[in-house]
Amino acid sequence: MSWIGAKKEALFNWIDERTAISTLWSSLMDEEIPGGARWEYVFGSGLLFVFATQVLTGILLLFYYVPSTDHAHTSVAYIQKEVFLGSYIRGFHYYGANTMLILLVLHFLQTFLWGAYKKKRELLWIVGLLLFLLILGFLFTGYLLPWDQKAYFGTKVGLGVMSGVPVVGSLLERILMGGSSLSTLT
After folding, report:
1. Closest CA to 102 of 50, 37, 163, 171
2. What is the mean pLDDT of residues 60-82?
3. 8 vs 58, which has greater pLDDT?
């Protein structure tokens, strides 16, 4: 073993003594799957990969995006036309969001049909449902970021849906709108 390899192993052992990361890793990765690993179980891993891609491309887009009603559309156009590989990065982000929704629905269907939400996994199912709602919120708000006509009218429709909630609808609409009219706060 080389000197660098020995130092890496010593560093890993030092970190592992203090964090027990190898125990955590083995408990996450060495779970027995009834019937063995099959192609049907690829949706969750694909979803994780697409999520990581969304985070990476979102961070890259964040460098040039301006979140205001005055400059949002202009900054998206600048990313598309002027930034090196900007249109590719935005394309990966856009199609990744659509892919994420498809994989999410397929993963939920597979989990439901295989009965993986039953005993000992109920909490995972509930957390998954909450993450599903969170991702739907991300998808909706991401759709609105370019602040073009589609985004404007999409915001109007989304706020209209919120205002239809009984008792607290108008309050929810006002909170989400950030005031009494559509603005940068929205």
Report:
1. 50
2. 88
3. 58
Query: How far is 29 from 14, CA to CA, in rounded Å?
Result: 21
Other Cβ atoms less than 10 A from the Cβ of 61: the count is: 19
Distance separating alpha carbons of residues 84 and 95, to the nearest angstrom:
19
Q: Please name the residue ranges forming H helices in the chain.
A: 3-19, 21-29, 42-62, 72-81, 86-114, 122-144, 149-163, 169-177
Alpha-carbon dihedral of residues 185, 156, 145, 129, nearest 10 degrees? 100
148 DSSP assignment? S
Q: In this predicted structure, what is the pLDDT of residue 56? A: 95
What CA–CA distance (Å, rounded) separates 21 from 185?
42
pLDDT tens string 163-173: 888 888 888 88
The per-residue pLDDT for 165 is 82
pLDDT for the residue 1: 57
Are 35 and 152 in contact, with CB atoms under 8 Å apart?
Answer: no
98: three-class secondary structure by DSSP: helix
Rounded distance between C-alpha atoms, residue 157 and residue 130, angstroms: 23
Distances (CA, A) of 164 to 23, 134, 136, 173: 49, 20, 19, 9
Q: Tell me, what amino acid is at 14?
A: W
Alpha-carbon distance of 100 to 109, in angstroms, equals: 14
